Amino acid sequence: MARRQEFPDPRDRSINEPTVILSKTKVLALYNQQNPEDKAKYVSESVRRWLEKDADTRGWSHINWHENQAVLTATLALNPAMS
Questions:
Q1: What string of DSSP letters covers the chain?
Q2: What is the layout of strands, in order, in the sheet containing 19-22?
């Protein structure tokens, strides 16, 4: 049995590192875990749309694709009171 994949949480990002890169393997693992009846072997348009929708729902502000890798970006702000 495959290890359970956790979708990255945008609240785990920092000002110094607001992005996370999901490899092709990670994208497919997340998709196949959520869609066991419709497993994908390739990062198709439907897999991309699914990831974009799920990432948006979870609070990621930008999703960019570079080949078959997804770059998720969280929008963060500095707290002026902490400066």
A1: -PPPPPPPPGGG-BTTB-EEEEPHHHHHHHHHHH-TTS--SS--HHHHHHHHHHHHHTT--EEEEETTEEEEE------GGG-
A2: 19-22, 69-73, 62-66
- What value, to the nearest 5°, has the Cα angle with vertex 73 and ends 20 and 82? 100
Per run of 10 residues, the mean pLDDT along the chain (length 83 residues) is: 86 94 98 96 98 97 97 88 64
pTM for the full predicted model = 0.87
C-alpha–C-alpha distance, residues 15 and 46, integer Å = 31
